[in-house]
């Protein structure tokens, strides 16, 4: 297994992993544009895990100087491992690798937002030493401002 920074050629594989994680098909043309922009931006880093020439894991993060911390902070934006490779320690290793990458990029902390419905994922982050100190609120700016919390909508 090889951990490496993602490339433009990984776009479809990362897309498939994130669609599986979100349990819905995202518009590929929009995804591809965002992915290409992030690959070329030093404030983003997408770590992938490759096994037998196939991307089986992706952890995408952003580095940002935040006023309320007066520090550079890493935020995990997306983190997905292929279904057949879960519960094998891959997520733990990917998170560990991402922490080192964040440190190497001058970050003093790593954060992640996680849907309230993902109870197993919450246990994973807590087991890996993360703390739930924040609430995150969101509001739809287009379409209906639906109050239900659903995965794969």
Describe this entry's structure for a reader.
By secondary structure, this protein is an alpha+beta fold. It has one domain (2-127): Gcn5-related N-acetyltransferase (GNAT) (Aminopeptidase, 3-Layer(aba) Sandwich). 31% of the residues lie in helices and 26% in strands. It is built from four helices and five strands, in the order βααβββαβα. It has helices at residues 11-22, 28-39, 90-104, 119-127, and strands spanning 2-5, 44-51, 54-66, 71-81, 109-112. A five-stranded mixed beta sheet has the order 1-2-3-4-5. The mean pLDDT is 92. This is GCN5-related N-acetyltransferase. GO terms for molecular function: N-acetyltransferase activity.
Secondary structure layout plus pairing:
Blueprint: E1 2-5, H1 11-22, H2 28-39, E2 44-51, E3 54-66, E4 71-81, H3 90-104, E5 109-112, H4 119-127
Parallel strand pairs: 4-5
Antiparallel strand pairs: 1-2, 2-3, 3-4
InterPro entries: Acyl_CoA_acyltransferase (IPR016181), Diverse_Substrate_AcTransf (IPR051016), GNAT_dom (IPR000182)
Protein name: GCN5-related N-acetyltransferase
Keywords: Acyltransferase, Transferase
Multimer state = single chain
Structural class: alpha+beta
Name given to the CATH homologous superfamily: Gcn5-related N-acetyltransferase (GNAT)
Radius of gyration: 16 Å
What is the terminal separation in angstroms? 33 Å
Unreliable stretches covering 5 or more consecutive residues: none
Report the top-level CATH class: Alpha Beta
CATH topology: Aminopeptidase
Lateral arrangement of strands in the main beta sheet: 1-2-3-4-5
Percent strand: 25-35%
Order of helices and strands: EHHEEEHEH
- How many separate domains? 1
The major pleated sheet works out as: 5 strands, mixed
